[in-house]
C-alpha cells in the first residue's frame, strides 16, 4: 500500500459541500466513486484537510488516500482526472510517508474571499464572488482588517452552531487586494473556526459600508458574542486557496 497526497481544485457551485452526506452531491463522494472505478469496485476512503460548505470553492484543497495500485505519483493526476467530473481537478499528486495526514499534518491554511462592486449583479460572477451594489470604503476595510491580525479569541467570528470549545486562533495575514471593481481578502492562519472567514468577510464589508467603525473590531473580539460581528458573507465568494505543511 502507498499513501498518495493530492492537491485538488473544485468549483463548489453544484456541490452540497465537500463531505459525504445522505442527500446531495459532494466532492468526497465524486472522488471516492472515481477511485472505486480505478480499484475495480473496492472502496477507497479519501481524507481531506478539512470540509468546505455548499457553494464554497477550492483552489488548493489537499486530500490523501491509500492505494495498492502501481501507478507512479506523477501519473495520478491524469489517471484520476479522466474519471472525475469537470468541476473537480487533481492538480498535483505525490507519494508520501504513511505518517502524512491531510488534516492533522497541516500547519495552516490560506483562504481568499472575492467581492465585486457594481450597481448590477453580474450573471457570470454570481457563483464565484460576493456582489456589493456600491463602492466600499477601502481604507476602512484595510484598517479593520489590521485589527484582526494576531492571536485572539474569535468567538464573535464563529458560527453559534460549532461545538469547538477553544476558539483562540492566530491570523498571520489579512490582506485587502483591490483591482478595479474587484476586492480580494487574503486570510492566512494556523487554523479556522466554522464560518470564521465568511464572518470576517461580512464584518469587513460592514466596515466598508460605514456600519462598523474599524476600532469596533476590538469591542467585537472582546465581547465574545456572535451577535456583535457582521453577517456571514455568502458562500460563493469563498475559496480554500492553499494548505500549508511543515518540512
UniProtKB/TrEMBL annotation:
Xref: CDD domains: PseudoU_synth_EcTruA
Pseudouridine synthase I TruA alpha/beta domain location: 8-104, 145-245
Gene3D superfamilies in the cross-refs: Pseudouridine synthase I, catalytic domain, C-terminal subdomain, Pseudouridine synthase I, catalytic domain, N-terminal subdomain
Function: Formation of pseudouridine at positions 38, 39 and 40 in the anticodon stem and loop of transfer RNAs.
E.C. numbers: 5.4.99.12
GO annotation terms (biological process): tRNA pseudouridine synthesis
Catalytic-site annotation from UniProt: 53 (nucleophile)
Species per Swiss-Prot/TrEMBL record: Bacillus aerolatus
Keywords: Isomerase, tRNA processing
Catalytic activity: uridine(38/39/40) in tRNA = pseudouridine(38/39/40) in tRNA
Family as reported in the entry's similarity comment: Belongs to the tRNA pseudouridine synthase TruA family.
Gene: truA
An MF annotation (GO) of this entry: RNA binding
Known partners and oligomeric status: Homodimer.
Any single Pfam family the record assigns to this protein: PseudoU_synth_1
Protein name (database record): tRNA pseudouridine synthase A
Residues binding substrate, per UniProt: 111
